[in-house]
Sequence to fold (859 residues):
Amino acid sequence: MTPNSPWKVIHVDLSKTLTALTIEDQFKAAFVVYRFDALVLGYDYVLAEEFPLAAAELPNRAAAILQGNLHSWNLVSTGKELPAPTPRRDSYSLRKSLANAPLSIETFAARIAERNKRPIEVTASIVICTRRRAQDLAKCLDSIAQEIAAGTEVIVVDNGPDAETEVAVRAHPTVKYVVAPIAGLSRARNVGVKFSTKDVVVFVDDDVRPEPGWIEPLLRNFTDPKVAVVCGMVLPDTLDTAGQIGFQFDLGFGGMGHLPLRFDRDFIEGGWTGVPVWSIGAGANMAVRRQSVVDLGGFDERLGPGALGGCGDDSEFWHRALFAGFEAVYEPLSVVRHQHRREMKDLKRQAYGYSFGHSVALMAQYARGRDKGDLARLLGTFPLWLLRRLLRQPLRAFRGNPDILLADWISGYVKSLRHLGLVFDRSPRDWLAKDQSANGKR
Amino acid sequence: MWERERLKPPYVMLDQEATSPVTAIEMAPEVNGAHMIVRYKGHPVGRIWFPRYDYGGSIPAAVVEDVIRKQAGWAIDQMKVQLALENRTRPAPTPDLTVVVCTRNRADLLRRCLDSLVAMRDARLDLGPAIDLLVVDNAPPDDSTRIAVGEFPGVRYAMEPVPGLDFGRNRAIASTDRAWLAYVDDDAIVDRHWLDRLSEEIERCPDAGCFTGPILPMMLETEAQLRFEWAGGFGKGFFWMRYSAKSWGNSLYPAAAGDFGTGACMVYATDALKRLGLFDEALDTGAPLPGGGDIDMFYRIIRGGTSLVYSPGLMVLHEHRRDIKGLRKQYGSWGKSILVLVRKNEKSDPEMKRANRRLAHMYIKGLLRQLAGSLLGRGQRYPSFVLAELVGAAVGSAGEYGRSQKRVAERVRRFRQ
Fold:
């Protein structure tokens, strides 16, 4: 019963004076993002027929959707410090304990302001890994023009490599252009880390448009030396096609909520089905402490898009970092907008990739961390989850709402089993120390 | 069985402002519970039951406070957020409004209703022109209503000779030149903030065709009143909603128009009523088809492309039926109205045929399930109530609308010759 594409994405900043919302004729529906300043507080789904929305009606709609989200920020102690550690598998249940915390919008706004006042004590370089998407890259570079102008170190790692990409980069004379000819996002990330000369590497995907001011909230969290990874919020840039809508809602890409979260030992202990590292964030908006990456041996070059395929290059690193005693932070005040793939076939490929990549990453994680939970998830709960989806399919098909991505999820998993050998590959690796003669030409 | 212990009348009516201190509830020996309306800064946000059966006759303030926080805490917070975002600095101007009470031979109830309306009118005289109050006297057997109206200065009187609530409602449309027309039942009184909230809603959504609000009990003195209210009553919740032409992911929409509000309190844009062709006089005729006109109009408002706003601030307090027999009749009337409307809309609105059919299916299925539960002693409704609703549905489904149209045509001939 969801409306057809295209949908309009509308951002409503509740901290400013509200204005009426309208929709153009071509859109069938709108995805309304309620925000308070940069912070994303909730989503509203509005049919084209319900428009226009009067300014005075937005408080009513927003209040119903935000419910406890505003005052759950009372958990964020003083706003200056990092939030309390997130107990395992509890990252989403935090709000339950908040039902009765006091609230006023002023306190809430003050909390955010305070959090935004924390000092930045690290230097940063922005690394954009790209592969044959010169147009996307050009837009991406435009969106960080402010950073480029301010003299932030920006490195584009061309994983193609191709001439068009180089042209797009050369348009910005201060942006460094580096090639990593061997395909693989992990490889490109490692090259970026090697060439970076700053404390923190902020990764920006080529299909992402960071919002102005997205970088500072990430960096503020590195004041604590234990923090190795900070992830931020990812929103859809547009929802123009059925593929993009599926990307957002069937794959559940992006947003990890409105509360800052902190992940440490508590998060990895006490479960039996593998640490849910995917709930830390998304690689599309991620910053890492350069020294920690070096210490941990870099991103696993066997994993991720371009290598074995799919995903997992980011989450496997988070896993390794957490097990090595580092901490990860999810910082909702940092927001980027992701340009979802438009075509349905890309969506299906992505579902396949998620399933495959997740499964392969579990193997690599088990080989290195020896956490039986990863094995339990790989051979137990994950295939069972797929089986449950499969068993539900007849009923869903009967109801005219079949699970279009089911085949891709299952085949991704099945194909990943060919790489089961990874589980036994315990040789220590340092991807950064490896001879990188092929990669990293200037 | 049927919650007999819990549902012993009478209950006392409480009204708790969340920003004021909570006091202990001390019940007199004959009182068996309390019904509390919770407000935040005057805005209704919820209601809470305190049966003696569960809490005892003397409930300390701390317990009351705890229950309020648990059951209404999040609704209070939601209202806090809403008001903070709204950040209203001045009261909304009084709209160009006629409030009409359609009545028949119930002068005492009418006086009580008019008391509340006149007080409401006079409290806002500094915020714009006074609202217009009108009483439509429907086929009066005597002049008791006219006399009662005469006691209230500034209240207009109109007479509709043909019996039938919707004849009365249409008479009101003909008797006003105001932009907005509110209908309030004679057995109800409006909440003290009703006009303030309506003014705000009309300022908020000036394009809406209709506004509705919650109907809460005025008193719970008899078993019938208590049972009715506890079983759901007219309750549509305490959350603001704007219903438009379509609704996300609701395949029954807008066939289940009974969810949009209740006829005891509804406000229309007068020109929307005229455009849609007035209330259907074959509904709300009194026995044997005493309901349906309100829901029919909600449905037509939505299908006509204007939106309908449900605002918890437009609260009225209603005197529910006092006797079990009357309550059973009321349930029977609900069943009849819902199926009559399904049949009517199937014919008049082919595009919605499937939705209307599905509504009928789900409604009957739900009733059968309730009947099974009720026979086992579950729920608050006696099997006879559910059965009455089912029988009503069967009659309503079997050509009742056509019969009613004939009866009404006959009536018009008789009274308007």
Chain A has three domains: 1-70, 124-345, 349-424. DSSP finds 14 helices and twelve strands in chain A.
